[in-house]
Every structure is written in C-alpha cells, then in structure tokens.
User: What shape does this take?
Amino acid sequence: EPEVTQTPSHQVTQMGQEVILRCVPISNHLYFYWYRQILGQKVEFLVSFYNNEISEKSEIFDDQFSVERPDGSNFTLKIRSTKLEDSAMYFCASSDEQTASTDTQYFGPGTRLTVL
Amino acid sequence: AQSVTQLGSHVSVSEGALVLLRCNYSSSVPPYLFWYVQYPNQGLQLLLKYTSAATLVKGINGFEAEFKKSETSFHLTKPSAHMSDAAEYFCAVSRRRRALTFGSGTRLQVQP
Assistant: This one.
C-alpha cells in the first residue's frame, strides 16, 4: 500500500541553524500538508500546499518557515533559523483530488526535530 | 472557528472490555470528522471518517464511531478491547477543504 515517507526520522540541530525536513508524498497526490506535535501537546497544522503554492497557513507558520516542491516527488519544510521551541515531531501528509474533497489526509511517520 | 474536545487524556480498560473514547466538536458548518491512531514512535493512521453519509461509521481494527449532530459528538467505540489497541487516539475536525484541527488526544491502555 502506498505511503508517505519522511526523512530523516530524527534531526538534531543547534539553535540558529537552518534545517530542511523532507517528505515524499503518495505518488498521485496533489495536496500536501505539514503539521507539528510538540511533545505532550496536540497535533497542530502548519501549512497546506497545492498547485505549487501555499493554500492555507497557520499563525505558527511565520517567516522562518518555508515550503517547496523542488521536483515531482519531494515536498520540503525549511526552518531558516531554528529556535528551541521548534523542537517537535513534524508530520507530512498528502491527499489526492478525491480524498482532498473530504479533507482526508494520509500522514507520514514524522521527523523528530531536536533543537539544542 | 472549529475545535475538538477529547474528554479524558487517559483511558484504561481490561482486555475484552468495551472501549469508549469521547470526542465533541464545535464547527460553524457541517464538519468532516476523523479518528486517527498513533502507535508508539509511529505516525498518524486514519481509523475512520465521517463525511456526511451514514452517521454510523465503521473503521479499521473493529472500531466504529457515531456522528450525533444534536450532541455535537463523534465518540469512538470498540466492543472488545485487544492488547494491540493500546495507543494514542486523536479526534480531528475539518471544515471543507481546510486544515485538520486535532483534539489533545486520549491514551488508551489495555490491561490483561
């Protein structure tokens, strides 16, 4: 069964450094999302992406964050200058046209980001 | 704005007992509702969803949920708990082509 994959599974970085989290959505999906889950807290929406542009973003998704689909398979989340409070599990999700019509999203296993 | 409230951050049941995980939602328009499960060190797996068809929704692993508009609820049930059901369960709501809003989660423990 097709699934969303994410790399790396765990990323450790120093405060102020840039990180890029990578996701490979399910191959025929066109809608892409990033969520994060700070340890012990609820899963929070960051951004959604369709047709090479951001379709929705939350107040968490400030100028330090950016997303890109650099090729036909990858979807990336970049944090320009990481802060301690960026430490979280970051989940990528995707939908196809049919599942997007009912907001059904398929999630990857997550990348645990630790900022020291 | 939409929101989700999950009553009980921890629920413990005996193996073979009924599982009931509660979810209440708030939405200004008819919502789509979801239950996801997260096993330790894994991602979120879709259990079931309500998208305005049948109000009783059956999902994977024997789980089901009933949409009750009058009570703004979407509680998750399973008649007989299994040890492998131990995980964290998240209720989520969306509002037509918008992002998912998650509840704070309920950790289910299953005692032998």
User: Anything to note?
Assistant: Chain B touches chain A at residues 32, 34, 36, 42-46, 49, 51, 90, 92, 94, 96-105 (CB under 8 Å). Residues 47 and 61 of chain B are 8 Å apart (CA to CA).
